[in-house]
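Protein record

Derive tokens from sequence
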Amino acid sequence: MSTRSALVPTGRAALLVAAAAPVALLVAVMVPALWAMAPLIGTLVIAMVVIDALAAGSLRSVRVSMADDFEVGAAGPIDLTAEFSSGLRGHVEAALASDARLFPAGRALADLAKQSARSWTGRITLTPQRRGTGEIEQVWLRWTGPLGLGARQAQQPVARAVRVWPNLSPVRSPAMQAFLRNFEVGLIARRIRGEGTMFEALAEYQPGMDKRRIDWKSSARHAHLYAKEFEAERNNQIVFAFDCGQAMCEPVGGQNDAMPRIDRAVTAALTTAYAALKSGDKVALFGFAARPQLFTPFASDAREFYRLQVAAAGLDYMPQEPNFTLALATLAGQLKRRSMIVVFSDFTDPTSAELMIESISRLTARHLVLFVTMHDEELAEIASAAPNEVGTLAMAVSADGLLRQRALVLGKLRAIGVQVVEAPYAQIGTRLLDRYLSIKRRGAIG
């Protein structure tokens, strides 16, 4: 069944008209008797456009093939297939219309390649920059005739929902899977020499054991060397708290991989959460902006990781200042035992930073608090720029002042007992995972 299409001139036809107009005018001036040639030339060009467009044939169908689920920041294909009736086509192009969550300008273009006399195919790469559910609204198709003077275009509704999830590529990476397979803290309780703080048992000392683990009193009593064996600390509560406010909604990264800070924080948190679940700890997510918006029940098994992923996908982007006092007081009231609270946030001015420090300080009396923030590489680049011009120098001085304020705030956090993880956006996940494992081995959570 053919799809209705409209006939339109191409850019080549417009150039032909522009070139023919001076010729027709010159003929009319030089030979007034041939003035009728001017409209005749125009009519001839219009006729050529119409004939060329009709020669392109009509559209029978267009298919848009794509997955229902994508991950933020990860590229995925959208395949287009157009089937035509008889005719000759010189060029075929397609455009997809969507909301800005999927494509930055709300549209994407692709040139289709000829597969057979009547079938043309093409591919558009979708790299969503925000989580949530978007929609591919409609597809536009435009194809020219053999001369490239006339074209036909048609549009067809698609109305295809696309779910954009947090990026879990670090969890699926071979390095992470190999690490988890060899992770010393397994799903079953076992004795780990030299790790953890929970006393497990005494064992006969064997060559190669850490001599610091020798229990000298028991060895003297039994006239034989015995060493202490410890079990790694397990069943800890880990809460990942996300600031979803204005500063965390700003993009960070290069031109091709820019994503909001909150999305990079979610990826880092889920990577560490997966390792925590594998090691026997419990994990919950907490999100807030002007008010708390999410607090999940604690997941206690790696099979419940999908529930955390779904919850993280629902963290919304809130263009407002976060209320740390309300959010962290609400979180503290929900926790019945000592936990490790990982706060992902950023700050832009000293006033909001002071309120944040005051709110976080109330948590440190009972809980272990980590503050995770991304190093502002753009600000550091401006501050270190060569002062070739007065404007560049002024920008460098201002940037340096902001970096000093930032260092002062982080220093205050460390002074009240908060562990700070600051790293470039590309390294924030590995730095957080390393810090979690270090804290766990020391038994500092429980």
Remarks:
- The longest helix spans residues 390-415.
- The longest strand covers residues 150-165.
- Residues 1-165 form a domain with the Immunoglobulin-like fold (CATH 2.60.40.10).
